[in-house]
């Protein structure tokens, strides 16, 4: 039986910041999405060659100043990136990819032999202090998750990695962050705790009415990195019904870097042994620093199910890890929308 593979975190190439240090909102042409021979690790030809059925494309905003100028630039950037995703399909890959808003859309698209592209947002920074923006992003652009933080605290929550400033700003989630999670639940937007501090992550599990997930993280017991989840966090994910999407970021797989597909599989197996096969998935973080020996770009995606089979997983377990777990979580979030409207 074929495996529907869903890579839950891929960046789209974009200029990082302006000369003034603000998030860059200048739109970048995405024509290289149609090329096989390019430095970009995720393109349609590469996905097709690797048998990758779906990908979450992230509108990523780097953390900058927590003032009006920073927040306005971040909001402009997030919308520009989501609009670039919308334009990318008809302009550069018509008939080969579909921008999808629901799990059913993803299944239908992959079943038709096309690549499903799922819009998401990395870093809640662009929301500033306005929770209503969540509903706008969900309705207008169909985003399916928001990563609460990136590298640095924002108004919503504390981050796992702080490059300047205090170790904590809120002691986890702020009151605003809790309100934003409520809006995310109401609009079917999953709560992504990758990049969040441990306190933020554990509090998000308690606050969210929908299971939370980590879109691109690894296991701290195997690699002691602040971006990885420890056993207590994994147990909390299990209790909530959530997921950790093990990622192909070499420094998260093996301390000091050099992580390979073998290490990746070890992280997947650790999660399965600790909390069960229904709580783990896959992600690459391609074009955001991800890529490792054995999965250097989307054309090598077919190596994953083969490696999981060699590790002893059966067909149903491989399908769960490679995509079904993520689809079930998306469906759970979609059910919340229906329930909130009745």
TrEMBL record:
Note the Gene3D superfamilies from the entry.
Answer: Metal-dependent hydrolases
From what superkingdom does this record's organism come?
A: Bacteria
Signal sequence residues: none
Q: What is this protein called?
A: Diguanylate cyclase
């Amino acid at each position: 039986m074929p495996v529907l593979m869903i890579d839950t975190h891929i960046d789209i190439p974009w200029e990082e910041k302006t000369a003034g240090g603000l998030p860059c909102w200048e739109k970048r042409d995405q024509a290289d999405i149609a090329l096989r021979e390019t430095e970009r690790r995720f393109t349609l030809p590469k996905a097709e060659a690797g048998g990758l059925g779906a990908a979450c494309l992230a509108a990523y905003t780097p953390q900058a100043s927590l003032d009006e100028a920073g927040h306005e630039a971040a909001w402009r950037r997030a919308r520009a990136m989501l609009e670039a995703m919308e334009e990318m399909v008809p302009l550069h890959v018509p008939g080969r990819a579909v921008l999808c808003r629901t799990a059913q859309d993803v299944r239908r698209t992959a079943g038709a032999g096309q690549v499903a592209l799922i819009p998401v947002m990395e870093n809640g920074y662009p929301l500033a202090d306005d929770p209503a923006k969540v509903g706008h992003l969900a309705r207008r652009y169909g985003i399916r998750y928001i990563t609460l933080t990136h590298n640095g605290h924002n108004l919503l929550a504390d981050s796992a990695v702080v490059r300047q400033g205090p170790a904590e700003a809120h002691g986890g989630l702020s009151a605003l962050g809790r309100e934003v999670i409520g809006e995310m639940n109401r609009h079917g937007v999953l709560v992504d705790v990758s990049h969040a501090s441990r306190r933020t992550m554990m509090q998000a599990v308690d606050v969210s009415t929908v299971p939370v997930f980590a879109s691109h993280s690894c296991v701290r017991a195997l690699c002691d990195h602040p971006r990885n989840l420890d056993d207590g966090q994994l147990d909390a994910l299990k209790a909530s019904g959530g997921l950790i999407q093990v990622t192909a970021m070499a420094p998260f797989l093996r301390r000091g870097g050099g992580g390979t597909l073998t290490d990746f599989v070890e992280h997947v197996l650790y999660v399965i042994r600790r909390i069960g096969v229904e709580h783990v998935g896959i992600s690459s973080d391609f074009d955001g620093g991800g890529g490792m020996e054995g999965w250097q770009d989307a054309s090598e995606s077919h190596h994953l199910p083969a490696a999981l089979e060699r590790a002893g997983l059966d067909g149903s377990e491989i399908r769960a890890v490679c995509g079904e777990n993520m689809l079930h979580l998306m469906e759970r979030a979609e059910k919340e929308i229906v329930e909130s409207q009745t």
